[in-house]
Protein 1
Amino acid sequence: MTNHFIGIGKYIPTEKISNLFFEEHQFFNEQGEILDQNNATISYKLKQITGIEERRYARKDQVTSDLGYMAAASAITNANIDAETIDYIIFAHNFGDVKHDTIQSDMVPSLAARVKNLLKIQNPYCVAYDVIFGCPGWVEGVIQANAFIKAGLAKRCLVIGAETLSRVVDEHDRDTMIYADGAGAAILEASTNNKGIQAHLSASYANEEKDYLFFGKSYNSEKCPNTKYIKMYGRKIYEFALSKVPLAMKKCVDDSSYNIDDISKIVIHQANEKMDEAIVKRFYSLYDQDVPKNIMPMNIHKLGNSSVATIPILLKMIMDNDLENHQINEGDVVLFASVGAGMNINTFIYQF
């Protein structure tokens, strides 16, 4: 038995934030020293490396669960189902609801419970819980939903990925420019024609890799040292991803009934354009092949890195023909992959 998506939804915040937004920021390095480069140079290098020209921020009156609700409602409409028939709501995020101009995370009750409330679902046996798994959280939620359905514990699951990273960034850290807000969702149920999830794989590296992404103090030493922000060791993450993610993708393909030539698209977490390109190039090199043309759709240029939301948003955009030269047709085999805090990696193969 395989399980497939019957509805996909997204919510892209309306606030467009270009790189010009950061021109007046004062950036420091990890030692608390003001960066020598001017902000125009920093912005130029950011675009060259990550591909990011602009990103989206949630409105001041919105929090992560609001974004997740909008994406969930979109997926339910797309599936044309009664929300009361959903057995599980799995909400992937990392920082809970953080109100504008605060840094305190609110995770009780769970964001999944908040979405269930907003959807007005009365069924008490619709179970709502959160997944904290770094950027791969939405993919992991899909893998868990797949397991629930296969085990006979559910017939229909709603998996949400949403984040408001703009609320947890250090304005004095140039990495702030990478992060964005957004939400995506999908509804999974059993397939009658063996289409859907064909194979999957997850891994956690939690030794020296554990703190490659972490919560740390501002680079501005004059700020309150007890206030924490999202921080990362970019070079270490890049090297880790390039080393581990292609191998995981290959193992997933090799453990399935497909081969590398069957893959129509690779939908990968929108973390960094150069890193994603390097991962896919390394993946194909493991098969002694060049990267096929138009294999990897991207939306990071305009939407930035919204963590768990990047993959479902990207998938919805492809399905809606919103990306030039990227379509998914019936029968296509798509490889999904993500990497993030933990450090966690996951991947699954899906036939449409």
Protein 2
Amino acid sequence: MRIYVSGSLAYDRIMSFPGRFADHILPDKLHILNVCFLVDGLAEKFGGTAGNIAYNLVLLGKSPLILSAAGKDFGAYETHLRKLGLSLEGIRHVDEEFTAGAYITTDRDDNQITGFNPGAMRQPCTYEIGHSQTGGAMAIIGPGNLQDMTTLPERFNALNIPYIFDPGQQIPALTGDQLRKCIAGAHIFISNDYEMEMVCKSTGLTKAEVTDLPNICITTLGEKGSVCRNGQGLQEIDAVPVKEVKDPTGAGDAYRAGLLCGLVDGMELAAACRMGARAAAFCVEQHGTQEHRFTLDEFWSRYPLHLGDPR
């Protein structure tokens, strides 16, 4: 089955400040704030919602097509994706822009200051999905270019391709009408509990009204697991125990990849959500969103008492 993954491709450039931000910010001088943090170094990681989801899908044995845009500095990321065996035909190259980048500085108390340059993400991917590519397909639309996020739902619906809608960090940039339309056309709407509140505020709908728009609504709750709602009622999915939480960044993308993989393989909703929970557990045990590794045997054997093996 063809899997389309729309969203961002980005470099995560992570810096560590050995002190505390609070020790260098004077509350009574915030109107003329001018601070400089001397960091210990810089680590560059591959990230972005589309890249992260696609990476986890590869670990799960799938070969998704990424729909996104990248810039003139994409070379290292391109090599990384090629090594994963992924096609690049759905990625638009924007030569006059840099690839999107998140510049993250973390202090010793894990407080973060982040700057994000959308760069090439300002441009839609422009990849044309034809009728010949729809035989047994499913898609996920994650946070990325706003035009892609609002036009791809129409395209997927026209081609009878069920899609998961995950507006995430782009919720404030979308209008209430856009959110309502994209969610209503989705097979699944997924968000965390904070994002759900943001959607309710933007659309003017209650949580119950939002959950009634798509066929299925999934709300992730971090270490508390997730909740799935469909026409058959509500199901609670437990989080998977982890050895050590090193970095929760990217866990949501890993969950979405596991969910999508399970649905593509024909699993029931609860089993697919448990696949998502399992993938997320591997992710949080490493720093970075694409640093964890597992084989399929490791994936299925690690938590047999909690999730079993539905293969």
